[in-house]
Design a protein that fits this description.
Number of domains: 2
Radius of gyration: 29 Å
Order of helices and strands: HHHHHHHHHHH
Largest sheet: none
Number of strands: 0
Structural class: mainly alpha
Strand content: under 5%
Distance between the termini: 75 Å
Number of helices: 11
Oligomer: single chain
Shape: globular
């Protein structure tokens, strides 16, 4: 009926009918999303949004990079804030040991249970200690310790520095002719760099302890036999290099968290944003850096890296 109706209408009604039909078609296609035509204005607006996001991303990377380079430069410039460094080490390291040890112990026990259920089918239960040691010392221990420290310490650094910026405490420190960056930021970054490798060792050995107790309840294996099997396949390159890579993780946590807290300008609202962004960005960068560092380890130790 609609196909014959336009031929029965006068010319002025034809124009009105055509306008109504076009407007109805545009409404249907916009609601259903079936329209394939994108106008020049919509395309330019989309390109502008992409260009703006890319610009903000590169700007953020540049600012964090300059901030990190300033931290590296100020580490070698006197005066050195030794007292502040020990306070931050207590805050970052000593107060994180309980979290690291409990998490490593639980993770080691759970991994042993899962590994045993798989290796029993192949009659390779004697390899459980070796699998546990390799997995913890090479990858699980360093990565999990870094992510735990990013969650606990990173959010704290970001929130504290953002609160100091919002309450103008940083401005008060600078009014006393004290370098606030060197006094507040550098000790926190150094504390993360120093504490994280030590916390990784606690994570590794607590994971081995949890794995031993889980295996002892299942097969009544002795501690000496468990340790001999665990360290039989490990070499120094499998222990030193993965542990030292956590210094990079610590530098990422300290620098990124300090950047979000030190540079915030949103008042009380910026405190929560700094804490959240510190955890999210630090965790993401730790995972990305882990991939690159593993490639470097395989390049430096091609014969012994696992």
């Amino acid at each position: 009926m609609e196909g014959f109706l336009p031929h029965l209408l006068p010319a002025h009604a034809m124009v009105k009918f055509d306008a109504i039909g076009r407007s109805r078609y545009d409404l249907e296609t916009s609601q259903s999303g079936r329209g394939n035509f994108v106008g020049p204005s919509a395309r330019s607006a989309w390109l502008e949004r992409v260009r703006g996001r890319a610009s903000r991303l590169f700007e953020f990377v540049g600012k964090v990079g300059c901030f990190s380079l300033r931290v590296l430069a100020d580490c070698w410039r006197p005066p050195w804030e030794i007292a502040q460094l020990f306070r931050r080490l207590d805050e970052v390291g000593s107060r994180s040991i309980s979290l690291i040890v409990v998490s490593g112990f639980a993770l080691g026990a759970v991994m042993t249970l899962h590994t045993r259920s798989t290796l029993v089918a192949f009659g390779a239960t004697a390899m459980i200690p070796a699998v546990q040691a390799v997995s913890f010392f090479v990858e699980v221990g360093p990565l999990v310790a870094g992510l735990l420290l990013a969650g606990r310490v990173g959010s704290g650094i970001g929130a504290v520095l953002a609160n100091m910026r919002a309450t103008e405490q940083i401005d008060a420190i600078e009014s006393l002719s004290i370098d606030s960056f060197k006094f507040l930021v550098v000790p926190r970054v150094l504390a993360c760099v120093i504490a994280l490798p030590l916390l990784t060792l606690f994570m590794d050995f607590s994971g081995l302890l949890g794995g031993f107790l889980s295996e002892e309840f299942s097969s009544h294996i002795g501690l000496q036999l468990y340790l001999s099997r665990a360290f039989d396949v490990l070499q120094w390159s499998n222990f030193i290099a993965p542990t030292l890579k956590t210094t990079v993780f610590g530098f990422i946590i300290g620098s990124v968290s300090s950047y979000f807290g030190y540079t915030t300008d949103k008042g009380a609202q910026g405190v929560g944003e700094a804490a959240t962004n510190s955890v999210v960005v630090s965790s993401l960068l730790i995972i990305l850096a882990d991939v690159l560092l593993i490639k470097c380890i395989f390049f430096l130790f091609p014969d012994t890296a696992i």
